[in-house]
Amino acid sequence: MADTQLMKEIDGWIDENWETIVSEIETLVNIPSQEDLDHAGEGMPFGPGPLAALNAGLDLCDRLGMKAENHEGFVGTADYPGADDSKKICLIAHLDTVPCGPGWTQDPHKMTRRDGFLIGRGTLDDKGPFVIGAYAMRYWHEKGVQFPYTMRMILGSNEETTLRDVEYYLEHFGEPTFLMTPDAEFPVCYGEKGIYQGVFTSGPITDSKIVSWKAGEAFNAIPTDASVTVAADASQLPAADGITLTDNGDGTVLIAAKGKGGHASQPEGTKNAIGMLVDYMLDNDLVSASERQFLELQKTLIDDYTGAAVGVAASDDLFGPLTIVGGMVWRDEDGTLHQSVDSRYPTTFSCAQFEEGLSATAARFDATYATDNDTEPFYIDPNGQEIQRLIGVYNDVTGDDRKPFTIGGGTYAREFKNAAAFGPEMPWVEVPEWVGPMHGDDEGMSEELLKTTLKIYILAIKEIMAIEY
To answer: Residue 139, CB half-sphere, CA atoms under 13 Å: how many?
Structure first.
């Protein structure tokens, strides 16, 4: 049980520093930091945006008194040295973000405060939590505490795409003693489903009626907004819920859909805008026969996120059921259509089983299928000291009695041997409708939850540092 006086001291320190903390989050959120390989180069392997955010994060760490270093633009490190520098207790957060769709009601790179929430791309994933983690480390440094092991913040810049930042880190620095990442849900996650991605590709398209189609922002995000342009007479098309029709004046119509997006690992309760377009085009016969086959395939995939309809349903006791979504669609100049696949899967499934099931499904619609990438499930012992201490801190601070759990999302934790994802989301806490989710439009984070997270992280560092390694 955490000391009551210490709890009060931490609360006071958080209140004293809060406006500065919010301004630091704002600085980072206001930097667009999506991967941009077209403008990558020496020292900025992921493009100028991720580098700018990385440097801003390192500047904050430097001002907080850490030894901060940029490692060729791949990754940053920032340390408060411990008595034994050979052992490192690490936090890792990322400063790159996913792209922003067209459904935002504000500039995603201009953070706003509204009724106790911070709104902007990265407030939740993962710039806000990065700042909270850095200040949790700062608390103990400011108090003059030197722990037995070095406290290190690892600043990632490629988490949302290929994780080359972690690849670089492990190659140059090796495994941390223990690592936490503030990029998931509380109370504490000790395991993550496998992540599998691939692409369906249509057969030859004849007599194409689809003029242009590129929708969705990432494989791992369910789109809120999507649009397609088709050859049609706008005056003959019916209205439909969530669908907007625009006559282009040249015999084509722009069909736009607004659904309810979210992270690929949490499809329940979402409404895929791509699926809405598919339904509208099929219902109103707006595609050629060859296009129809592929849209029927898309519908089969998108309408059933359990994977049963495409032959890949699975479950286990550790992770529960498999999920599968279609996050992106695009059309080549010759009319060929492509649909992405993103699945989060348990220990009872494998890459080979995906390829078998999805290839068989593709063949039913005269399409083909290919794997893009695969990462196997990850977990550590939930009864180990680290997980038990983290869950203890969480329950002490919140007064809850929650248990460690596993997730479908992928975090940095899975890339390391001894690691856990630790907050800051509490999905059971209701938020206003205008607050969007991770990877969604109008992404937002509660200031009160961020304060609670900071308190939890401060105490978690103390607890992990008390373990004898």
So the answer is: 27
